[in-house]
Write a structure and sequence with these properties.
The complex is a heterodimer of chains A (113) and B (112). Chain A has 113 residues and is mostly beta strands. Chain A contains no helices and twelve strands. Classes of the chains: A mainly beta (113), B mainly beta (112).
């Protein structure tokens, strides 16, 4: 079945450091891929998405590229800020499974000044 | 654009008491609706989803139930809460023809 495997956390970085959070997936068809962000005490917000292979999603300085050959969708940011401290979830959905969403376990990021 | 409301925002309940959490949506019709639970420090667990009024699919057998009495209302219930029901409950919707789910602000439930 479909699944998402996400880099274990927590991750602690200094401000302006480079961020990578790894995400790989297993899917039977051609999924859409997502990164969601959850700030403390809040619901999830869509950060970026990619709906087909080689698409790059980007938002707020974050980027992720849909790599079909490696079944990956790693999240990157060149220079993190304290305000980026949150939990990040990788997810996929697939039309073949009725648009069911499959989430990774989440990666907690703390950015220190 | 669509808006998701969840009520209440926080709740503290004793073990064995009943539960009713409400999710209402605005700005859309006939969405798919979902209930997730997030236990402390853990990922999201899909509990129920609904593709229409009165249609509920359960992902995990447990002491919780869900109902969709109206197109824009999704209710999560329990007759007797367990300690393990503590967590952050999130309602989400998926619009027809869209790819991403939109999430509500969540309800923090503590069972004592």
């Amino acid at each position: 079945g479909d699944s998402v495997t996400q880099m274990e956390g927590p991750v602690t970085l200094s401000e302006e450091a480079f961020l990578t959070i790894n995400c790989t997936y297993t899917a039977t068809g051609y999924p859409s891929l997502f990164w969601y962000v959850q700030y403390p005490g809040e619901g999830l917000q869509l950060l970026l998405k990619a709906t087909k292979a080689d698409d790059k999603g980007s938002n707020k300085g974050f980027e992720a590229t849909y790599r079909k050959e490696t079944t990956s969708f790693h999240l990157e940011k060149g220079s993190v800020q304290v305000s980026d401290s949150a939990v990040y979830f990788c997810a996929l959905s697939e039309v073949d499974t009725g648009n069911q969403f499959y989430f990774g376990t989440g990666t907690s990021l703390t950015v220190i000044p | 654009s669509q808006t998701i409301h969840q009520w209440p925002a926080t709740l503290v309940q004793p073990v064995g008491s009943p539960l009713s959490l409400e999710c209402t949506v605005e700005g859309t019709s006939n969405p798919n609706l979902y209930w997730y639970r997030q236990a402390a420090g853990r990922g999201l667990q899909l509990l129920f989803y609904s593709v229409g009024i009165g249609q509920i699919s359960s992902e995990v057998p447990q002491n919780l139930s869900a109902s969709r009495p109206q197109d824009r209302q999704f209710i999560l219930s329990s007759k007797k809460l367990l300690l393990s029901d503590s967590g952050f409950y999130l309602c989400a919707l998926l619009l027809a023809g869209e790819y991403e789910q939109f999430f509500g602000p969540g309800t923090r439930l503590t069972v004592l």
